[in-house]
Amino acid sequence: MEYSHSDAELIGQPIGYWSWAAYKAVVTRTRAALAELGTTQPQWWILAQVARPGAAMTRDEAIRVLQGYLDVGAQPLTAELDLVVDRGWVTEDPDGLLHLTAEGRAFQAEAAAVQDELRAERHAGIGDEEYLTTLKVLQRIIHNTGGQAWHH
User: Fold this and answer.
1) Alpha carbon separation from 47 to 6, 13, 32, 117 (Å, rounded)
2) Which partner from 19, 46, 50, 73 sits 20 to 30 angstroms from 106, CA to CA?
3) Taking a C-beta distance cutoff of 8 angstroms, is the pair 58, 97 a contact?
4) How deeply is 39 buried, as exposed, middle or buried, from its count of CB atoms within 10 A (0-12, 13-18, 19+)?
5) Helix or strand run (H / E) with residue 92
């Protein structure tokens, strides 16, 4: 890959810009790929959480876990969860726990395959060690600036 600046120029570049540009590129690409499947990124998050082994959770628990993702908030997630239920992908049992339906499990698997393809696309030419270093540096920057970040 050819970089846009020399190392000497890059060292003085603002991390805020480059992290924002990476965020925008990744999220835009992810949302476009999920839209091709007929779903949204928040709907994917819900399906992925409900599909986790041993992760039985209620509607409120799912929203609490996910509301910090990309600053979505609880209200939009409630509407997205309603749509996932309306589509027949998730049901709520008498105890209020969320479960994937057979249709939901099949769709979640299809969306997970797309997410795997997207991850491979994003990681092309980037080794695990380099990726791990990048995430650790970003976490230090977040910590150094008093920010908070969490991902489940």
Assistant:
1) 42, 38, 17, 18
2) 73
3) yes
4) buried
5) strand 90-92
19: CB partners within 8 A, 6+ apart: 138, 141
- The reported pLDDT for the residue numbered 70 is 67
The residues spanned by each domain of the chain are 31-122
Q: Which whole-number Å values give the CA distances from 59 to 51, 56, 135, 137, in the listed order?
A: 14, 10, 30, 34
- Enter the tokens of residue 80: 């997205």
Asked: is 31-122 a CATH 1.10.10.10 domain? The reply is yes
Residue 93 has a pLDDT of: 93
Phi, psi of 39 (to 5 degrees): -135, 175
pLDDT mean by block of 10 residues, the chain; 152 residues: 80 91 94 96 94 88 83 79 96 94 96 97 95 93 87 62
- DSSP SS3 for 13: coil
pLDDT score, position 74? 62
Alpha carbons 141 and 89: distance in angstroms, whole number: 38
* One-letter amino acid of 21: A
